[in-house]
Write a structure and sequence with these properties.
Layout: H1 21-27, H2 36-56, H3 59-68, H4 75-87, H5 91-104, H6 111-123, H7 125-131, H8 135-148, H9 155-160, H10 169-182, H11 187-192, H12 203-220, H13 223-233, H14 239-253, H15 257-270, H16 276-293, H17 300-314, H18 338-357, H19 360-370, H20 376-391, H21 395-408, H22 412-424, H23 426-432, H24 436-449, H25 455-466, H26 474-487, H27 492-498, H28 512-527, H29 532-541, H30 549-561, H31 568-579, H32 584-601, H33 608-621
Length: 635
């Protein structure tokens, strides 16, 4: 069945796959640094690992052994070997193979390798049928099971079919998986029970047990016991329901339940009990049903946003892979409402106290107490009052207001609503503050530099003001135009950051040279063998998310200076991007800055331009950069 190394097949034998996008993507997984001899060695070790797993049924040990081989570009072969061996065994081994793939997915074997492994299985089905007469049906079940377990996308069936010769058994596998298994009623339970994997528990029973585990956890607070119970269910394909139910329970209970639930999910993620795919699927299911949940929990959307931000900042949720959370319908602020008037009075007191103490944590606590329902209208009022109060004071308070706005982590749409309130009142405020245009310009520009709002938000605000909509005052429109022009200037970020003295610390500026030195030292320390989590924490503790493009620039330059021989720093960038620590905007800005200095870098690294183009391509494939980012170095 394994007569030749997959990557050593003559080119002519891959002709059908050349027309297939999936095959093209798979071909990119090959690493030019891995020799064919090392591949043959990997094959022998992978075969041993598979045989040992079927003897011991030890998922953790198998994961460690596979990880220790340190050749992730050939994990697709492990997928193929595991399934092909299981096909010749009893149902017990088939179920064990399915469970192992689900357990390794994401943590040890990444999605493209699983995809490629099943693609290879489909291509070799004619050979597999020689030793296993019912290979078509068995492999169809494996494909369907992988889709049910969420380790293979449903689109695999349609994308892989054009890659296969017409009339081959691989094509029959894909047709049977779709028509005979995935399209029938209750297909999930049928497929899961095919090899005896979940006969002891139905979906309804699983949901009931999940509910019991969560209730007991909230009552006792024992994370270890809860994780053991989740693992004991042996329904890794259904862990998304645990995530959804846990988050829902946190929102319904309120109080300290949210913190306990997030701690549990983080531990389950760190220990590999719930994989990244299942966590993402659980959050997406809740996003889909959040409108219904708001009937029982009015601020459900707000609470969900808060939990997404916390999970993303802790590194166990990739927020960029989630569905967009549609904002709640905007409600007009009733200016003469008694509750609103009371909130405004409290807000002024909070802001005045903050300008005296500089205690951001106290502001966050006070604001949470006053705006416990996370009202968008109240957030907008706070933004307006904060900036209005700052504009009546000195540069110190203006800087403090910008720092506070960046630290609060309000949803961008709430900040934009607050800016609209400022624009609406700008004409009247100009009577008392002749410099209001300059002040608003700097606040608008600073909010973009601090990534409180996106550049597109500013552009949309200008369009609305220019169309003469409510709030389209000439003063506000002029400030918006000035802000966009200021942001488009060279080195605008540094000038904007220094406009009010660089913070409430009393320093003469942000001292960006010191920050650059710190970034350089932490990157050097990590590259010399440091811990990746510690490096991420150090980057986070810099407290300058608007300057993370410098991390990207320095890391890329260091990688290129070593001519790609040591890519630990590339791994650090991948980790920072996956955690949401480096945003797409900062990643793009970092690459743009490197593009601007490649000519100078070429004096020391002659092939700098060629290397940079390669890294741009890799970044695009990893989803770090938009496809429109230029491949070539700008002149």
């Amino acid at each position: 069945m394994e007569s030749r190394p997959d990557d050593l097949v003559p080119p002519a034998m891959h002709k059908p796959a050349i027309q297939c996008a999936a095959a093209e993507d798979a071909s990119l997984l090959r690493s030019p640094t891995v020799s064919s001899e090392e591949f043959m060695q990997f094959k022998r070790k992978a075969t041993t690992i598979v045989e040992e797993y079927f003897s011991t049924d030890d998922v953790a040990a198998t994961a460690n052994e596979l990880r220790e081989l340190r050749v992730p570009c050939y994990h697709y072969y492990f997928v193929k070997k595991l399934v092909s061996v299981a096909m010749d065994r009893h149902d017990r081994e088939k179920e064990m193979a399915a469970v192992l793939l689900s357990s390794l997915y994401g943590d040890v074997i990444d999605r493209p390798q699983v995809y490629k492994g099943f693609g290879k299985l489909a291509e070799s089905c004619d050979d597999l049928s020689v030793d296993t007469p019912d290979a078509v049906d068995i492999l169809a079940v494996f494909v369907a099971r992988a889709i049910i377990d969420d380790i293979l996308p449903p689109a695999f069936l349609a994308k892989q079919l054009p890659c296969l010769p017409e009339g081959c058994k691989g094509a029959e596998v894909l047709h049977r998986a779709e028509k005979s298994y995935l399209s029938v009623p209750h297909h999930g339970e049928i497929i899961l029970q095919r090899w005896g994997g979940s006969k002891s528990i139905t979906v309804e029973e699983a949901k009931a047990k999940i509910a019991d585990i969560l209730e007991e956890y909230l009552a006792a607070g024992d994370i270890g016991e809860a994780c053991r119970c989740i693992r004991g269910l042996k329904i890794s394909f259904f862990h998304h329901d645990i995530v959804k139910r846990a988050l829902t329970l946190a929102m319904e209970r309120g109080g300290g339940a949210e913190g306990h639930i997030l701690d549990l999910l983080k531990s389950a993620s760190d220990e590999g009990i719930i994989n990244e795919s299942q966590i993402t699927k659980g959050f997406n299911r809740l996003i889909d049903s959040v409108d219904d949940l708001t009937l029982d929990v009015p601020n459900a959307r707000r609470l969900l946003k808060s939990m997404i931000l916390k999970a993303s900042s802790e590194g166990w949720l990739c927020a960029s892979s989630l569905k967009p959370l549609v904002p709640e319908p905007k409600k007009a602020v009733v200016e003469d409402d008694a509750a609103v008037r009371q909130f405004k009075a409290k807000t002024l007191s909070i802001i005045k106290e903050y300008f005296l103490t500089g205690d951001i944590i106290e502001v966050m606590s006070s604001l949470e107490a006053e705006n416990y329902a996370c009202s968008s209208s109240y957030n907008a009022i706070f933004v307006k009052k904060l900036i209005t109060s700052a504009m009546d004071r000195k540069s110190r308070e203006k800087e403090m207001a910008s720092v506070l706005l960046s630290s609060l982590g309000m949803p961008p749409e709430d900040v934009v609503s607050g800016f609209h309130l400022l624009i609406e009142s700008a004409e009247d405020a100009a009577l008392d503050n002749p410099a209001i245009v300059e002040d608003l310009t700097m606040f608008f520009a600073r909010s973009v530099v601090d990534e409180v709002i996106a550049p597109s938000n500013l552009e949309k605000m200008e369009e609305e003001a220019g169309r003469g909509k409510p709030g389209g005052s000439s003063t506000g429109l002029l400030a918006l135009r000035n802000a966009r022009a200021l942001l488009g200037a060279k080195l605008s970020a540094e000038r904007i950051l220094r406009c009010w003295g660089g913070g409430a610390t009393g320093k003469a500026g942000w001292e960006l040279d010191d920050v650059k030195d710190k970034i350089g030292r932490l990157l050097q320390e990590y590259d010399c063998g440091g811990d990746i989590r510690e490096a991420c924490q150090c980057i986070k503790e810099l407290g300058m998310p608007f300057f993370h493009h410098e991390v990207v620039k320095k890391a890329l330059v260091a990688i290129m200076e070593k001519r790609g021989k040591d890519e630990r720093l590339w791994g650090l960038l991948a980790e920072c991007y996956g955690r949401g620590l480096i945003t797409p905007n900062q990643m793009t800005k970092g690459f743009e800055r490197v593009a601007g200095c490649v000519d100078d870098l070429a004096l020391d690294v002659p092939d700098a331009g060629k290397q940079f183009c390669c890294y741009v391509e890799r970044a695009k494939k990893g989803g770090w950069l938009d496809a429109s980012f230029p491949n070539g170095v700008r002149s």
